[in-house]
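Tokens in:
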């Protein structure tokens, strides 16, 4: 017997078990004139308020693939403040799985971690889901995508008035293209009036089954969907670290040809470490930075999961424990836990006892545990990302603009992406960018007795990886004032000493050092990555200044640039792509 999915927050059902599928098709497809409305539209965007189980999405996705013209693209944007778990979605929809031809399994496989933020997922070659885990009132104003069709499926207005706010209606008016339609199961008068006020012609039509009325409407405003930008055919990427190879990878997956220029070998810069950790950078408040790192963290895990079955990238989603050693850190981590909207499955505060149990080592502090964070080999990730990329073993010193092309070392390109870390300031187009280097050294030690059964990675200002191949990485120094690449004994002492402060019984004097590496992070003046279009310069993009979190931020940098080049929906809210845009330094 199928279970009726019910929302605890709103004491309301998601759909009726007997006829939920038929009702979803009637209310949201048929009454929105779908699939007929897909015809003649190379790009079609549906926006839904209330993702819930994803039933409406599965109906739209299936209908689009069965009826839309070949080559057409569907973007489905949906907001959800209280995401269900994968297991619940699978359970609630199992009964109808056969109706969706494998798409339910795919949705469950790709469904994001329940962490607040924007999660863009290409579910098939023609369908992209932008699943926004946030309050619709907070997130909708940050969307810039023209919308052809609205599915208004919040819980009943009487039970959940927030979802039917004037602010939401105003945003619908801002984003709708001429002729956009909406459909909703409700016939509530204030909803109908609210939508009329922002430019919809609203009608009452017969509801599904025994329901008397529902509402539909057509937008009368004049906004038209502009043609997307001309897709670049050939792009030059300058720099073969994780930023550059991520750009090459995501562009190639969209059918764009890439040449990557790297004179000293892939991953010869900061991205060449044997192992590194992927984690978000924490803040005490939700805002631009958390919005960026939450989305980036999810996106990065997705890429590692895609690469790792085919490449040995040293990927272990082994979790990380962020030790809380003082009040300031406790304040920040409490802020993170209470404002970032990460489900407790993905972030938990543990006292020392629980933390010891989970990590398997005699640590001296409790901390925040992120089970989905982990360890990876940046060096090998870079090789894997660039597997199908043409790598040109040349240094690039300048760019030349000729007609509408860029000339790079004598070759012609439609666009160029500068991913050469601090060397970006050698290019006259970006010589004003306030970036500099921060030297860092990591130390490799043989697994030490006190850490023999360490199962997770430890972060405490410094970091220690869980053991791999009988070794551990202990990192890293942070020296903006140093510029030499020699391995330093003092630095070994420094990072091992820090580890001894957090693990009982770890003795730096007996630790056996088996390797080290020095690298130079690139950091901007405000410590935020620099990503996106270069201001006032057509066809030129940049992804640099990934600081100490490049393993988490580089893939998102590439996705933002790919969306800008192709006109796809952005993977992050407007506040975030403005936050990372180089333009911020000119504005000041
Ligand atoms: C010691 C240390 C430990 C770290 N640990 C972590 C960690 O655990 N987790 C994490 O997320 N991050 C970590 N980081 C940060 C992370 O490594 C960086 O953020 C990331 O590697 C930056 O990648 P990138 O591609 O921007 O730069 P790079 O990897 O430095 O790549 C830039 C590339 O551009 C090339 N280049 C330069 N000039 C030119 C030119 N004129 N023409 C062509 N090519 C050019 C260079 O040769 C280089 O290969 C660490 C950094 C260091 C130094
Ligand atoms: C009726 S259910 C949606 C059913 C869904 N469309 C489906 O196919 O299963 C409404 C959803 O809206 C979500 N929701 C309620 N208030 C919200 C808000 N302010 N912002 C975003 N989502 C909200 C609820 O958590 C719930 O999942």
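Residues out:
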């Amino acid at each position: 017997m199928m279970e009726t999915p019910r929302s605890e927050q709103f004491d309301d059902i998601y759909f009726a078990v007997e006829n939920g599928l038929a009702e979803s098709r009637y209310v949201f497809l048929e009454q929105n004139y779908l699939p007929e409305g897909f015809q003649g539209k190379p790009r079609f965007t549906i926006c839904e308020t209330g993702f819930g189980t994803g039933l409406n999405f599965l109906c739209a996705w299936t209908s689009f693939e069965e009826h839309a013209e070949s080559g057409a693209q569907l973007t489905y944007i949906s907001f959800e403040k209280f995401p269900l778990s994968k297991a619940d979605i699978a359970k609630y929809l199992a009964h109808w799985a056969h109706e969706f031809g494998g798409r339910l399994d795919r949705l469950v496989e790709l469904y994001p971690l329940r962490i607040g933020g924007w999660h863009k997922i290409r579910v098939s070659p023609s369908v992209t889901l932008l699943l926004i885990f946030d309050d619709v009132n907070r997130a909708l104003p940050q969307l810039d995508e023209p919308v052809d069709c609205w599915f208004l499926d919040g819980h009943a207005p009487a039970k959940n008035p927030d979802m039917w706010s004037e602010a939401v209606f105003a945003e619908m008016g801002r984003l709708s293209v001429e002729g956009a339609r909406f459909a909703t199961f409700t016939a509530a008068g204030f909803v109908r009036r609210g939508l009329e006020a922002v430019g919809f012609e609203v009608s009452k039509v017969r509801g599904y089954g025994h329901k008397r009325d529902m509402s539909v409407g057509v937008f009368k405003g004049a906004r038209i969907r502009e043609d997307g930008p001309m897709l670049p055919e050939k792009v030059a990427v300058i720099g073969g670290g994780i930023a550059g190879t991520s750009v090459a990878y995501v562009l190639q997956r969209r059918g764009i040809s890439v040449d990557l220029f790297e004179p000293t070998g892939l991953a010869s810069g900061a991205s060449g470490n044997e192992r590194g950790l992927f984690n978000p950078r924490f803040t005490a408040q939700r805002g631009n930075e958390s919005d960026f790192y939450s989305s980036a963290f999810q996106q990065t895990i997705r890429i590692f999961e895609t690469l790792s079955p085919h490449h040995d990238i040293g990927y272990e989603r082994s979790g990380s424990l962020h030790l809380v050693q003082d009040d300031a850190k406790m304040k920040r981590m409490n802020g993170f836990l209470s404002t970032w909207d990460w489900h407790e499955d993905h972030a938990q505060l543990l006292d020392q006892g629980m933390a010891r149990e989970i990590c398997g080592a005699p640590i001296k502090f409790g901390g925040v545990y992120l089970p989905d964070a982990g360890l990876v080999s940046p060096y090998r990730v870079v090789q894997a990302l660039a597997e199908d990329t043409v790598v040109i073993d040349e240094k690039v010193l300048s760019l030349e603009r000729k007609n509408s092309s860029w000339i790079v070392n004598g070759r012609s390109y439609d666009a160029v992406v500068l991913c050469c870390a601090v060397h970006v300031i050698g290019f006259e187009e970006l010589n004003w960018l306030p970036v500099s280097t921060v030297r860092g050294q990591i130390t490799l030690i043989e697994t030490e007795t006190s850490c023999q059964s360490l199962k997770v990675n430890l972060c405490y200002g410094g970091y220690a990886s869980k053991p791999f191949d009988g070794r551990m990485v202990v990192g890293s120094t942070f020296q903006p004032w140093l510029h030499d690449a020699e391995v330093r004994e003092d630095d070994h002492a420094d990072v091992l000493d820090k580890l001894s402060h957090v693990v009982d019984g770890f003795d730096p004097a007996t630790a056996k050092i088996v390797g080290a590496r020095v690298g130079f992070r690139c950091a901007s003046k405000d410590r935020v990555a620099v990503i996106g279009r270069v201001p006032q310069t057509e066809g030129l993009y940049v992804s640099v200044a990934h600081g100490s979190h490049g393993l988490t931020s580089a893939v998102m940098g590439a996705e933002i640039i790919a969306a800008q080049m192709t006109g796809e929906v952005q993977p992050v809210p407007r506040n975030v792509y403005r936050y990372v845009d180089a333009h911020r330094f000119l504005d000041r």
